Automatic annotation (TrEMBL):
Domain N-acetyltransferase, first and last residues per copy: 2-142
One of the record's GO molecular function terms: acyltransferase activity, transferring groups other than amino-acyl groups
Species assigned in the record: Kitasatospora phosalacinea
Coiled coil: none
Protein name: N-acetyltransferase
Length: 173
């Protein structure tokens, strides 16, 4: 996998990868795009957030084809506390359970911890999204509030202290 800044040029490949797929968009804050124009509007909104300095939207590219197969974002950063969030991530269903998410998140975590110097990465996951909860846990994140009721948004965290062991485990997989 490769990550690069999201642009409108990614829209056709992204739409082919996961547009119209209700399963892909089910737990995301944006509605399922039923046309390329719908997806273009979502990308435009993400880029407007980037222009305001509140989000870094990235395209996830398939290494073999170079095509965009999903997106991920860094957002909610607070340099004072050292926290940053990963969210709004999706991959076309064809790439589920292939290691593509793990590889993309490994790149994103390395950027957050090693390049940007954050001390904590967080995720907010819909409690009903079992697949994402399991994926975040496999990355090495743990519930930020283990006693939270299993509904609504659940918070997961990985700290800079956790990162070396998580990186070693993820790179050997």
């Amino acid at each position: 996998m490769r990550l690069e800044p999201l642009t409108p040029a990614h829209v056709p490949a992204l739409f082919a990868a996961g547009g119209r797929d209700e399963q892909v968009w089910r737990h995301l804050s944006a509605p399922t795009p039923h046309t390329e124009d719908d997806l273009h509007a979502i990308v435009t909104a993400r880029l407007a957030d980037a222009a305001r300095g509140v989000r870094l939207p990235l395209a996830v590219l398939d290494r073999a084809s170079g095509a965009a197969i999903g997106t991920t974002n860094l957002h909610g950063w607070d340099v004072r506390t050292g926290r940053i969030e990963i969210g709004g991530s999706w991959l076309g269903r064809r790439w589920w359970r292939t290691g593509a998410n793990r590889e993309a998140k490994l790149l994103l975590l390395a950027h957050a911890f090693d390049t940007l110097g954050f001390t904590e990465v967080r995720w907010r996951v819909d409690a009903a999204n079992t697949r994402s909860r399991e994926a975040v846990t496999r990355l090495g994140a743990r519930p930020a509030d283990p006693g939270a009721p299993p509904h609504g948004l659940l918070h997961y965290t990985m700290t800079a202290t956790d990162w070396p062991a998580a990186r070693a485990r993820l790179t050997t997989r």
